[in-house]
Amino acid sequence: MTHPVTLFTAQWADLPLEDVAELAAGWGFDGLEIACKTTHLDVDRALEDEAYLRSRREILDRHGLSVWAISNHAQGQLVCDDPLDFRHESIAGPRTWGDGSVEGVRARAAEQMTKTARVARKLGVDTVTGFTGSKIWRYVAMYPPVPAAVIDDGYEDFARRWNPILDVFDGEGVRFALEVHPSEIAYDYWTTVRALEAIDRRPAFGLNWDPSHMMWQDIDPVTFILDFADRIYHVDCKDTRIRPRDGRAGRLGSHLAWGNPRRGWDFVSAGLGDVPFDDAFRALDSIGYTGPISIEWEDSGMDRRSGAPEALKHVRSLLWDRPQQAFDSVFTQKS
Amino acid sequence: MTHPVTLFTAQWADLPLEDVAELAAGWGFDGLEIACKTTHLDVDRALEDEAYLRSRREILDRHGLSVWAISNHAQGQLVCDDPLDFRHESIAGPRTWGDGSVEGVRARAAEQMTKTARVARKLGVDTVTGFTGSKIWRYVAMYPPVPAAVIDDGYEDFARRWNPILDVFDGEGVRFALEVHPSEIAYDYWTTVRALEAIDRRPAFGLNWDPSHMMWQDIDPVTFILDFADRIYHVDCKDTRIRPRDGRAGRLGSHLAWGNPRRGWDFVSAGLGDVPFDDAFRALDSIGYTGPISIEWEDSGMDRRSGAPEALKHVRSLLWDRPQQAFDSVFTQKS
Amino acid sequence: MTHPVTLFTAQWADLPLEDVAELAAGWGFDGLEIACKTTHLDVDRALEDEAYLRSRREILDRHGLSVWAISNHAQGQLVCDDPLDFRHESIAGPRTWGDGSVEGVRARAAEQMTKTARVARKLGVDTVTGFTGSKIWRYVAMYPPVPAAVIDDGYEDFARRWNPILDVFDGEGVRFALEVHPSEIAYDYWTTVRALEAIDRRPAFGLNWDPSHMMWQDIDPVTFILDFADRIYHVDCKDTRIRPRDGRAGRLGSHLAWGNPRRGWDFVSAGLGDVPFDDAFRALDSIGYTGPISIEWEDSGMDRRSGAPEALKHVRSLLWDRPQQAFDSVFTQKS
Amino acid sequence: MTHPVTLFTAQWADLPLEDVAELAAGWGFDGLEIACKTTHLDVDRALEDEAYLRSRREILDRHGLSVWAISNHAQGQLVCDDPLDFRHESIAGPRTWGDGSVEGVRARAAEQMTKTARVARKLGVDTVTGFTGSKIWRYVAMYPPVPAAVIDDGYEDFARRWNPILDVFDGEGVRFALEVHPSEIAYDYWTTVRALEAIDRRPAFGLNWDPSHMMWQDIDPVTFILDFADRIYHVDCKDTRIRPRDGRAGRLGSHLAWGNPRRGWDFVSAGLGDVPFDDAFRALDSIGYTGPISIEWEDSGMDRRSGAPEALKHVRSLLWDRPQQAFDSVFTQKS
Amino acid sequence: MTHPVTLFTAQWADLPLEDVAELAAGWGFDGLEIACKTTHLDVDRALEDEAYLRSRREILDRHGLSVWAISNHAQGQLVCDDPLDFRHESIAGPRTWGDGSVEGVRARAAEQMTKTARVARKLGVDTVTGFTGSKIWRYVAMYPPVPAAVIDDGYEDFARRWNPILDVFDGEGVRFALEVHPSEIAYDYWTTVRALEAIDRRPAFGLNWDPSHMMWQDIDPVTFILDFADRIYHVDCKDTRIRPRDGRAGRLGSHLAWGNPRRGWDFVSAGLGDVPFDDAFRALDSIGYTGPISIEWEDSGMDRRSGAPEALKHVRSLLWDRPQQAFDSVFTQKS
Amino acid sequence: MTHPVTLFTAQWADLPLEDVAELAAGWGFDGLEIACKTTHLDVDRALEDEAYLRSRREILDRHGLSVWAISNHAQGQLVCDDPLDFRHESIAGPRTWGDGSVEGVRARAAEQMTKTARVARKLGVDTVTGFTGSKIWRYVAMYPPVPAAVIDDGYEDFARRWNPILDVFDGEGVRFALEVHPSEIAYDYWTTVRALEAIDRRPAFGLNWDPSHMMWQDIDPVTFILDFADRIYHVDCKDTRIRPRDGRAGRLGSHLAWGNPRRGWDFVSAGLGDVPFDDAFRALDSIGYTGPISIEWEDSGMDRRSGAPEALKHVRSLLWDRPQQAFDSVFTQKS
């Protein structure tokens, strides 16, 4: 087995961590990518209450699970997003949202991210996965016209708001891994290039490779691994199924709900979609990635309790032992 | 398990129903889609002989099998087909063929269809699957030229001959489900639209979704489910494998026998071909279809006794439990 | 010649209408689709000042040009868009923007749209093309999660704000033709279906077929014509070139400027891109569309004065005389 | 110019030959492929009436036109077709149809074909293009089941009926060139192989390469030229446009009229479709074909008087002068 | 089970034959395709030393393995290759290489091939698989220019050098099966045609179907089986995975090592790549091939001890029992 | 007009430069990319004989032609190629070939390249286009196995042999532009990366963008321009037509002659193939390339005297005037 396989807990946030751990261990996962949800890992409490933090570890230990990364997608999203609205209030939690004043929310969210780095350190975890939000995502349609300076400012805003957070990460020896995703400062290949440049490619900031949103944007997830080889800090497996072209299904989802078969694409349990996971795992090995493969399980057409172990089985079936020698090295005839 | 899986018995008509039932039950099927072949279900006898009808049920009960639909493809084919020839005689059976006079055959075949509805009722079955034949299929090449009035008349002929049959279906509370197929009044998407219009979209007439002939005609079987959502009355699974283009293999089959690898496409056991069954089953759920998935097993390259259980296994592997809630419903942070 | 060809004036708004008319006539256009820009057609002034309105006509007459539609994309955009920001101020003009209060701007923009209908009537024009804006476009990424009720409300907001405007259009006997476009209530096929339903498919509201944004979303512009046949009120020709997949160029444009060759697609002069204009013009004839073909010229790689006549030449080359009879009607042998 | 370009007159059969000749010459054609329609070339009369035959030549001479082939598609169709119905009556003409008795019609049609060979000889023409009909075309759907022996018999029926005709062709030194086409004994690649074998590849029987029906069947027209190199006796240019897949448009045409944009494919004027004519003309040269390129003009969306000269212009633009030497023969450095 | 499955031993030449046999038998293989490597089968010794030859058989017998073919790729390669260099020395072995004089090496390699036929005969094996080398492969780029006469001479050189070897094969009643491959006289479809013609299609020379190098050259491996039906003497299964186009990965491998994910294609364990093995096995049955399916296992991303049994499992899963009757033969209604 | 268009003279080397100049000027070319062939530009003589050099200029001046680059493909090829054989003797010319000793030929060819730089300088030309040859091209098939060290040595050999030549280029202020091509040290994307690294990306060495060999290798010529933006020193236009897949035509050309339609691809006159020249020219502008577009005319199916002016017309038709401003810059409403 070349990589441990973990379960990302965000999609199970309605269950206590104990239950998620029990399920995951029962299915054979090696560990959890714990989401900083209050039901799973409350960062405020973890910094204030040693017993609480210890309880998190004990839950893992009891089930023989490890942790290589923790996630804080929701708080990260609030750092740069513009505007902030009811959607953000829904994911922020009352402590961060507070009175809802825009800069207040952003400051509290940024603080949550630094706390997340500190909790990671305390848990012996080197990587925090998550989102950044974006000041300019909403201009993606480019009408009404958007001057180039506005786009430039969006990347600078990202750098202004995240560099201080990343300084704390550096202090803790923890790295942040952005999941490239619509709504974020980087949502495809060239925005990733630009985002990395905006923070001078500082090592504290890397990527959480999740191919699901690359597929429908025509971004090759294997190319992504190879070209950003030194920035692949974590791997999330979510699969996407592209429907064959019918001239009606659109790339943007048509404001249709997840699982509506009229959508042009949808998330499916890893192995049921179009992500070339075998190629991707080979590419990850080629760049020297040795971390976990984490299953972020989202599929509107399956019960998650059937799906998660199915996805685990699929992923493990592709994690071959790697060879000791080149196959053609034995062709030499010596006698 | 979201749908029962049945075996269509037409491809096993050389065996007595008892044997088919034993095989199917042994492989794990939930029921049979019984073909009205004399070896399986003789409609004349079933209406005249209560004991015979009871014996059919007992065979099923003995093997723990249910029945949700019965089929009468052959008799339906004779209702509209033009001309009738040796091929029709072969499938008609001597009772329907009689002296072979064209309108006589058609009348007897129509009567067989009404009898099939009555037998279905007696068996507690709501759906009869089958064919319609077509007066205009043979003009498909459009040379020598075919006036529009001839095409119009073809659809009207279908309505004239089938409306009285459907009246009997309505009387019995049974629905007819046409398998869209070359040789029938509807063989693709737009002919299905036109056929439905020809009978004013009366509810007695719906569709038996079978994707196998859609594939090589470039009809998207998932689109078909969504656009004819209120007319999908039954589901037959037969798979089709399209050969990659080589400039020689044609879409029309080149008068080559099934299984000849020079054909541009061929039927294969469900799961070995190009039908997107996972997408299709999700679409069926989205339109509220709750009926059986019936395996119509045809593959010229496999023994049917190896193939049928293989196909069952494949189909069942895609019938996931459906979820209780949206995956993103748990993202809200409450505390 | 089956359709007149007009030039859309929005891309020439820096020039006085006189100059645009002279250029267009010189290149051989049959008319203009006049944008309600102050340099071309100031609707406030046109309603208050008969001489001004007359001057517009005289400019056209002097150059032998006709007008079949006028456009007011910018004001329409302001009616529903949310939030309104610097981009909207830039296109609103000071009269509509006023103090910038959100509902104030929306009300003034709505009034501008009703005025546009009245001006159209006075000019003898039956169609106003334009945008609607959208309350929900910005939720397109669906993260943070967006409840279904929010999407529903977006379509209802559109209906609430546009129905009163359309009442005025009805009063004037003028129709509104929405250009389906990102940022609008309808940006693809299924959002168009939903938008039409939201206003009960009232005849005052139809579509300005512009294929350019359909191409990169995988929407078939010919299917669009056929399926929305009774709602195609106007035709704008803008072409789009899709770059072959390279795994890096994304469908969303990567916040890269128009004309940047790293984009996955870009606008090009009609005829240089992937829009199947020949198929589209045939489809337009088949649905009985008899209006103008209007060239909306946008191409970041060509000078507009070279491009507009080039595009005109291309479009005209596809506007064949239609046949008098079916080609196979002469195959009958009479003697 | 490497090949003369002719106009096939069948699509102009409502006009007297004089008018067609005048039009064709005016557009710049080099000759006519004259259809044996009574308005153009009445074979009975031509064999009985020397003056009539002379008049045909004079019409051509007057307009500077040549003739390399004459066509008799309609009569050929009647030789094998089964059943014969109203469609055949429409194309047969009263003399061939007579009392309509099946074998009577077939015999008279066969005689017309032998007469066509004799007329060709008298006109100094070596090639007759046309159809054969088919006893088995109507079994193309393969349901109701069709035994292999029936297919075998179809090819044998073709041989039985055509060998005597071809004997007359041999006697006259004229060759027959079948247009591979649905409804004929050969409609794709493998049926062409089988048809040629059925008559032992006798030289009197060859092919009229017309790519239009190959396109939608996925037959590569260039492969066809290369693989049947010794049987390409004539070339007809008709173009076909395949619509992009939309999951609804079918390969079989859906009983929709020519020109209906919901069809999956349609005929278009040469150069507007998907036939790779440049590749094809190069392939024709490579096999040593030196005959005419004949334009069979069919396009439901264009007036034929606009279309024919447009197609001529397109075809001529691809008939380059061929080179004298290999381009890399000059790379040798001699001093 | 329709075909035995064997393991090709060349990729295991660093292990003694005993070990390979034990492994293969343990995994369930039916036999070995033994490579004439000194560790597995030393042809010189086998002809001189009966006990040695017997020991080879005993190893197989002990493990219940059969042998249908032996291979001598390396010696065959030396027969025609030009120039011979360090690469050839590496595979030649010291006995064949000797003093390294070009014609000396070629003569000794040719003798090894005749010895291989003799050993095959003694082992009761009818088929020797292998390579031929090529005098003209190195001119594949066609710059500097290559006269046609040079190409002609390459095929003649092949015939001159191989005909005497094939005479010995004929004498022994053994057939040679060339693996079509870059570096060989036949590396694709048309070079195979030409190579067969060069030796007048003598039956002693046939093909070892290995699809792996066909895939990246766009050669359809199923077409290959059908078109060379009478020359398919053996089957080797090696799979190839083509990476999706990204505009940078090239077809020629870019001098990148096997397993480098920047390559445009790579070898993978059978079942993980793009070879249509199901179609291919059906085609092999259709041409009457009854020999073994041999797994030539090469995958730079897997340990061979995990991969070989995995590939065996995949291949066996496609070797269905073939049917006894046509599926539609039971549709006839007899009573 | 954004770029001058030149004619590359290598394909006209059988004609005196005077004749080529007259032809090119007559067709409307702006200049010549002169091949250092003795008939066009003899570098030895040009360095020794001022009058000769002056005569070259006068020929150009007389016809109003300019020169931006000269080419020496043949001599460059000899610098690294291994082995050298009859093909090289054919292109070397007797002075370079001399006694044919390998290192002698290489040294003389290297000297010719330095002389070419000196002649360029004297002609006021900044760029020499050409080939490099390659020590490792012949190992492209990777069988017999090729150790990584051999590949490494191939790039080092290139650096060793070319760095001294490039030193002379630097001294003259002239740049060398390699045409990426099979047989050269760089034949695709990744070999170009590696070749540039081998010489430390020294500015004296850049690329002559010629898309023709990229097409069949699946290299995107536009990506190539963008990724090697600082190394595009010259542009050669040769087009390539890829035949649709037929399962028989291979990517490697099958040792078939240019123009054989069974090849999988072939060179065609610019505009008749698959190179996306419009996209490419836009990309060239985006990287700031301001040099000539040179037509390297090779098409086995056209006479060069028809083809060259045809290609010129095509290329010019895509060299649009570039715009003065962004099209959406005029959307702002100021009053």
From TrEMBL, chains A, B, C, D, E, F:
Keyword Isomerase: yes
InterPro entries membership: IolE/XylAMocC-like (IPR050312), Xyl_isomerase-like_sf (IPR036237), Xyl_isomerase-like_TIM-brl (IPR013022)
SUPFAM superfamilies linked to this entry: Xylose isomerase-like
One of the Pfam families matching this protein, by short name: AP_endonuc_2
Keyword annotations from UniProtKB, A to Z: Isomerase
Listed Gene3D superfamilies: Divalent-metal-dependent TIM barrel enzymes (3.20.20.150)
Residues covered by the Xylose isomerase-like TIM barrel domain: 22-317
GO MF entries: isomerase activity
PANTHER family (alphabetical): HYDROXYPYRUVATE ISOMERASE, XYLOSE ISOMERASE-LIKE TIM BARREL DOMAIN-CONTAINING PROTEIN
UniProt-recorded name of the protein: Sugar phosphate isomerase/epimerase
Annotated organism of origin: Jiangella rhizosphaerae
